[in-house]
RNA sequence: GAGGAUGUAGCUCAGCCGGUUAGAGCGCAAGUUUGUGGCACUUGAGGUCGGGGGUUCGAAACCCCUCAUUCUCCCCA
């Protein structure tokens, strides 16, 4: 016998968890559909060549690789085998991997199906992704993303729409959030102003941590990364007055920087007269890791819960270029369903109705009434009402306990008398009240 | 990749410096109640103390190794 277990960072979802997760997916999906996004599903595994090189060096290490089938060592290069160089061995023995996000598979899909698609193409996708990261709080090795992307248009209208989607979905989920927005071009403008465009990535990584490690920490980080003191000083000045208008003079010499501010301005103007239920804030320190972002970038954090970001996204000018279809601009957002789950739990914000499986349980006392109850439960189901019948007639104690444990609010008892009178004794589990009624009345109560 | 923490009953955990038959709460099963759950009481089942090795008269406890889980950093949803 072996002890059962799960791979690190993965989880089972019991009935209640599954119902709660479905609630999150449905809420998000409903909003996606409302904004005209179309469903898409792609395989769990992709060719490794599709995935590698898209997420930076770190990302490649976090990819789950799938071992080739068959005698995969037979054709592997013997030199590589003997040198034990893992990095070089991987392509020899693995040609597929689990997807790391939904955006790259989407780009692959768009390129492969360009003739069949109408642009701008808006798709949503709700599927699991896998990352070989070290699991910790709010971080799993298998987790769901709910993505909405539109590709084939540069209109900033879509940035505004995606903000509305975030706002609407989180309002529906009753999670108060802060939607942060920034623009990679604005970030580049800073680098230009500071004369450190060659250290752009180092710079963004450092200032991204401002709210976490403070200005002193950022200064240290910049110095450690070898950014000159003069540039650091200027950065400090810029970060201390972070509003779109305040940045304009700084970017006087940076065309890209000004363009970034302009784009941000457009997005805010779209939304100006349309009140949001959550905060939309410009945050110049927001950087986001994925290197393919080129324009506006988003991140969502829940207020009052320390959980990292529960959503993120942005615009990428040329995501499909690597697959041979350049010049197609896209913008998208992602909801981190698993973290949203954790936040909803921390906030105790799940609807109570999600704990009930069926509204009524039928119970019987002996074989004869069991048959009668079977008829009753069938008729109730035929009317479209979920219902259950306990499989063992007799001991009512057991049957009532079953109803209590499954949170079933009504128990319908079929006894000798009820069967003869074509009625059913219905007990309300919460109030303890019990009344004998015709089956039709029960169905009416349950809203048939 | 770097560093901490924790592994004892189905679950959550107690078990202090090594010392008799390893405990509690919850849960589970049966009963008090053969047409009525939650409450109460009674009884019962259930443990290779993560695994391996070592120290010792004696190890759940101390040491080493190993496996697993979890948290932090890096990075991210």
Description:
With 448 residues, this protein is of the alpha+beta class. The chain folds into two domains: 15-63 and 100-347, Bira Bifunctional Protein, Domain 2 (BirA Bifunctional Protein, domain 2, 2-Layer Sandwich), CATH 3.30.930; 356-445, Anticodon-binding domain (Rossmann fold). The protein is 42% helix and 19% strand. It has an eight-stranded mixed β-sheet. A five-stranded mixed β-sheet has the order 13-12-14-15-16, with helices on both faces. Strand 15 and strand 16 (434-438) form a beta hairpin. Helix 8 (184-194) packs antiparallel against helix 13 (255-271). The longest helix has 20 residues, at 15-34. The two termini are 50 Å apart. The mean pLDDT is 90. It binds one RNA strand of 77 nucleotides through residues 3, 5, 8, 56, 58-59, 61-62, 101, 129, 131, 133-140, 143-145, 205, 288-290, 307-312, 334-340, 363, 365, 394-405, 411, 413, 415-417, 425, 427, 429, 432, 434.
The CATH homologous superfamily of the largest domain is named: Bira Bifunctional Protein, Domain 2
Second rung of CATH, namely the architecture of the largest domain: 2-Layer Sandwich
Oligomeric state of the chains present here: single chain
- Indicate the radius of gyration in whole angstroms: 28 Å
Number of DSSP strands?
Answer: 16
What does the largest sheet look like? 8 strands, mixed
CATH class of the largest domain: Alpha Beta
Kindly estimate the percentage of residues that lie in beta strands according to DSSP. 15-25%
- Structural classification: alpha+beta
Q: Describe the global form.
A: elongated
| Helical segment count | 18
